[in-house]
Amino acid sequence: MQALVALLCGLVFGSGLALSGMTNPAKVLGFLDVAGRWDPTLAFVMAAALAVAAPGFALARRRARPWLGESFAIPTRRDVDAPLAIGAALFGIGWGLVGLCPGPALADLARGSPPVFVFVAAMAAGVALQRAATVRRQP
Amino acid sequence: MEETAFTPLSGLAGGVLIGAASAGLLLASGRIAGISGILGRSFFPAAGDLAWRLAFLLGLPLGAWLTGALAPATRALAITSSLPRLVAGGLLVGIGTQIANGCTSGHGICGLARGSRRSLVATLVFMLTAAATTFVARHVLAAS
Questions:
Q1: Model pTM greater than 0.95?
Q2: What residues contact residue B33 under an 8 Å CB cut-off, 6+ apart?
Q3: Which of A99, B35, B36, B50 has its CA 20 to 30 A from that of B43?
Q4: Domain enclosing residue A95, as ranges
C-alpha cells in the first residue's frame, strides 16, 4: 500500500515537472540566466507548488500520524552548519552547469536521451559515494 | 544556448501538481517528497524502507512519459552540455545534495512549505551559486 501511494505521488510529481516545462534544462537555465533573456517560469512553478504544499504540511502538523503510516518522518534539525551551505553550493554549481536537478533528471529518463543517461549515471555515482561515506561514519 | 518562452500558466499548473504530490506523500505516508533524499537512502537502505522509495522514483519518469503522451509539447528536452560537463554536473549534483540533505524538492519545496530555516538557507545558496555558474558559463567563458 505504501509503495502504491508512493508510485502515485511520484507519478503526479513527474507529471507536474513535465507539464511545468522543468524537465527541459533549457527552460531551467533560462531562469538561472538572469543576464540573458530571462524566463521566470521556474519561480511560478515554485510559488504554485508552495501554495499547495504549505496548507498540506500545516494539516499534517496537526495530525498525530499519517493516513496510512505509523508516524511522520519530518526532519527535526534546525542548525545551519557548514555542510549545509557547502553541499548546497556544490549542488548549485552542478545544477547551473547542466540545468538538471535530481527530480527532472530522473523524470527525463522517460525521454530516452543519451545525455540524460550520462547525467543520471554520474549523479547516482555521486549520491552512492557520498551515501557510502556517511553510512561508514555513522552506521 | 537555447532561449525559452515564459509559460506562466503551464508553470502554475505543473507547480500545483508538484505541490499536491508533496502534500499527498506527507499526509498519506508521512514522508518528505525530497527526490535526493528518497534516492540517497535507496543506497544502503534500512530494512523494509526500499520499496516505497523505488516506487516513487519510478513514478517520476512514468508521469513525465504519460504527460508527454497526452501533451507532446512537454517532451521538449534541449541539452547542449558537453560530455565532461554532464559528468561533472551529475557528480556535483549527486554529492552536493547528499551533503546538504536535500535539493530543489526537499529544501526548495517541502522545506520552505514547512518553514524550515535550514531549507531557506540551502535554497538561497543553491539558487545563487546556480545563477552565478550559469552566468560564468554563458557570459564569461562562452562570450566569444
A1: yes
A2: A9, A13, B21, B22, B25, B26, B56, B105, B106, B109, B110
A3: A99
A4: 2-137
